[in-house]
Amino acid sequence: MFSLKSITIGLATGFALTVPAFASIDSEPSCLFDGDTNTATISVTVDAASTLSSAAVIAVDGVAIAGAHSLSNSNKTVSVVIGQSCENQSAGQITVSDGSTTHQ
Predict the structure, then answer these.
(1) β-pairing, 16-23 with 101-103?
(2) Which of 7, 23, 41, 80 could join 3 in a cystine, given CB atoms 3.0 to 4.6 angstroms apart?
(3) Quick check: 54 and 14 in contact, CB under 8 A?
(4) Minimal CA–CA distance to 43: which of 61, 53, 33, 11?
């Protein structure tokens, strides 16, 4: 796997076009339910060549999950509380956006 942070294409006229780059999610996202707090937390880890910043946001079907996101695992894993259930979440729906980079 490889990571592209951004790709800049120089045009003959001197303009530059920056297109969003894509990087890989390392393993299937996890969703853990905590019975003590009655909350579910989804976590996503990116590949070894990538790191995440504090701006990283998890999205499901293109909709960013509201609430505080936390980083761990040397800024390779981002987590957020998604509610009270892990039901109806599939890995194919989940992306992580971090500035102009989308991890999928």
Answers:
(1) parallel
(2) 23
(3) no
(4) 33
- In contact, 46 and 76? CB cutoff 8 Å: yes
CA separation for the pair 65, 59 (Å, rounded): 6
pTM score:
0.73
What pLDDT score was predicted for residue 19?
A: 40
Let me know: does 58 contact 42? Beta carbons within 8 Å.
yes
Q: What end-to-end distance do the CA atoms of the chain give, in Å?
A: 12
pLDDT tens sequence across 14-31: 334 444 466 788 888 898
- Separation CA 54–CA 36 (nearest Å): 27
Q: What does the angle CA 76 – CA 96 – CA 87 come to, to the nearest 5 degrees?
A: 105
Contact 7, 17 (CB under 8 A): no
DSSP character for 36?
T
